[in-house]
Write a structure and sequence with these properties.
CATH topology of the largest domain: Heat Shock Protein 90
Number of domains: 3
Structural class: alpha+beta
Number of helices: 20
Number of strands: 22
CATH class of the largest domain: Alpha Beta
Distance between the termini: 47 Å
Strand content: 15-25%
Length: 642
């Protein structure tokens, strides 16, 4: 049959008015429509208040999760301007209804700002069922209200209506996320608290009050951290054995303010977090590059000067020197450039130069007066280098015992293609599901790696036990990019053989546990797989409904089943419940879980590295009471399989 001709003419060109583009493509502005994106709405409003603090006009912010599901953010800043703008509307309406409108495009209102693009307020407005705002300034309380981004209050003589008089200043925003946009509209109190506490550490003169009024619990906590990022580093290391006191540098270069705090602990890992204008840069950037490069050069110079390294010895690597280090690098930049609206990576070349200059100037000034601390750090580097070399030999010996192969001993059933950008590997539990998956897959691009039951919990195991585990060794060999075990890093993401690593487990408690064990392995030993967006969880259906008339339909969770029952009350159907992937025949498995055109995948992301590490330790570690407390606190967020 001839292919239907597609019409492409002037009628195909669409113009999205106002905030329609945000509602149509929300992920472009807030990253995703998951809970991570939902929480991001709060952060956008809070960041605007923090910018007022940076400008010197705000020292108090309150964030409240209301019982009706909305969120209220208030501050005691100057209040958003409400006068008539040259565009013919009140300035506040321009801010909340127009992308790229705000006071952050020159250096007059804000010298430094986290809200770079001027889209935060309008995006929150666009993605909310309603947004209500009260502005205290010029002796009055000005009021405005929106529904799905559109104002629904009449202006009074062209200006916002006034609710009353006041001598205070500030802005109070209350918004309710739109369930048409988000997968869930219940904010995560744990994640919001973590972000607010982080903000308090980065701004020693700021007080932030968090309240959770949901479920009638009415809890409240106040964050005020006068020690700044020094206190932040101490907090991150509170459960570790400290080898040094926190070390702090601060300086200004070419208008860029640089703060660095770091501490060494008796755990060989590296934890360095970068911030620009109070915004956490999850993917790092030039400020972290500048810090790492300069610090490595300074410490290698000292190592040779005091004889830790001889003339014939190679320099310590950067990971050697940073193992055991927990660091926060925070800069204030007047003109930051980020990759994307969610600001995950800083891109300013001058940031690297300024951070390097401050470290090169102040590190020698500190270590010349603290030789004992210097020797402790170089001792860590020396120990790390020795263990790294020994570990590399052990890894090579262990991993070369198992070759990269096609369906060797019932293990990896590889794909034909060697184009990593197109290939994907499914990790499947059990012989039955593995057999169906091997039959159902597209052999050209899809590899199947069966595993037997639950793998080792790496959070509770030493490195030698991890490497001795056959299932883990098979995965490391199959992926091809090595792994990082904390004594150095030979992980090379460019050698990854598959663009997608897909965990395919049964949709039950055991399947969830298997997925959690695998994610713990990836997070602790191959975190770049997650950071670079290569790890996914397959979403097999729970049910298939087969109506007495018409075609069957797959349903992926109990909510989908409830909706189906509601919309098909007068229709008789048979309900098939899948207890495991092994119950599906190859055609069903292909259609529901393997076919890129019809399947559902959930990509794994690290929203908050510090919180993610803490939660992984709580849930997968050996200490029971914190795990019990976490479960009690988050019981209402659980998705129960009934």
């Amino acid at each position: 049959m001839a292919r239907k001709k597609e019409i492409y003419d002037e009628s195909s060109i669409h113009v999205l008015e106002g905030l329609e583009a945000v509602r149509m493509r929300p992920g472009m502005y807030i990253g995703s429509t998951s809970r991570k994106g939902l929480n991001h709405l709060i952060y956008e409003i809070v960041d605007n208040a923090v910018d007022e603090h940076l400008a010197g006009f705000c020292d108090h912010i309150e964030v409240t999760l209301e019982n009706d599901g909305s969120c209220t953010v208030s501050d005691n800043g100057r209040g958003i301007p409400v006068g008539m703008h040259e565009k013919g509307v009140p300035a506040e309406r321009l801010v909340y209804t127009t992308l790229h409108a705000g006071g952050k495009f020159d250096n007059e209102a804000y010298k430094t700002s986290g809200g770079l693009h001027g889209v935060g307020s309008s995006v929150v407005n666009a993605l909310s069922t309603y947004l209500d705002i009260k502005i205290k300034r010029d002796g009055a309380i000005h009021h405005d209200h929106y529904r799905q981004g559109k104002p629904d209050l009449e202006l009074v003589n062209g200006l916002l209506p006034i609710m009353g008089k006041t001598r205070e200043t500030g802005t109070c925003v209350n918004f309710l996320p739109d369930p048409e946009i988000f997968d869930t509209v219940r904010f995560s109190a744990t994640e919001v608290r973590s972000r607010l506490h982080e903000t308090a550490y980065l701004n020693p003169g700021l007080t932030i009050v968090f309240r959770d009024r949901r479920d009638d619990k009415n809890s409240e906590i106040t964050y005020h951290e006068p020690d700044g990022i020094i206190g932040y580093v101490r907090e991150m290391n509170k459960n570790e054995e400290a080898l040094t006191e926190p070390i702090y540098f601060r300086g200004i270069d070419e208008g860029i303010t640089v703060e660095v705090a770091f501490q060494y602990v008796n755990e060989f890992h590296e934890n360095i977090m970068g911030y620009c204008n109070n915004i956490f840069n999850a993917d790092g950037g030039t400020h972290l590059t500048g810090f790492k490069t300069a610090f490595t050069m300074v410490m290698n110079s000292y190592a040779r000067e005091i004889g830790v390294l001889k003339d014939k010895d190679p320099n310590f690597t950067g990971p050697d020197i940073r193992n055991g280090m927990t660091a926060v690098v925070s800069i204030k930049h007047p003109d930051p450039r980020f990759e994307g609206q969610t600001k995950t990576k800083l891109d300013n070349a001058d940031a690297s130069k300024s951070v390097s200059k401050i470290v090169n100037e102040q590190a020698p000034h500190y270590f010349d007066r603290n030789l004992d601390t210097l020797k402790v750090i170089l001792g860590c580097a020396e120990k790390s280098a020795k263990i790294r070399k020994t570990s590399e030999k052990a890894k090579n010996s262990l991993l070369t015992k198992q070759k990269y192969s096609f369906d060797t001993n019932g293990k990896l059933a590889n794909c034909i293609s060697r184009d990593a950008s197109k290939c994907e590997i499914f990790i499947v539990e059990g012989d039955s599901a593995g057999g169906s998956a091997k039959t159902a897959r597209d052999r050209n691009y899809q590899a199947i790696l069966p595993i037997r039951g639950k793998i080792l919990n790496v959070e509770k195991a030493s490195i030698d036990k991890v490497l001795a585990n056959a299932e883990i060794r098979t995965m490391i060999t199959s992926f091809g990019c090595g792994f990082s075990e904390g004594y150095g890093n030979d992980f090379d993401i460019t050698k990854l053989r598959y663009d997608k690593i897909i965990i395919m487990a049964d949709a039950d408690v055991d399947g969830a546990h298997i997925g959690t064990l695998l994610l713990t392995l990836f997070y602790r030993y191959m975190p770049d797989l997650i950071r670079e967006g290569h790890v996914y969880i397959a979403m097999p259906p729970l049910y298939k409904v087969i109506p007495h008339k018409g075609e069957g339909e797959y349903l992926y969770d109990d909510n989908a089943l409830a909706r189906y029952r509601k919309t098909h009350r007068d229709q008789k159907f048979t309900l098939q419940r899948y207890k495991g992937l092994g119950e599906m025949d190859p055609d069903q498995l292909w259609e529901t879980t393997l076919n890129p055109e019809t399947r559902m995948l959930r990509r794994i992301e690290i929203a908050d590295p510090r919180l993610s590490s803490d939660i992984t330790g709580v849930l997968m570690g050996t200490d029971v009471p914190p795990r019990r407390d976490f479960i009690y606190e988050h019981a209402r967020d659980a998705e129960l399989d009934v």
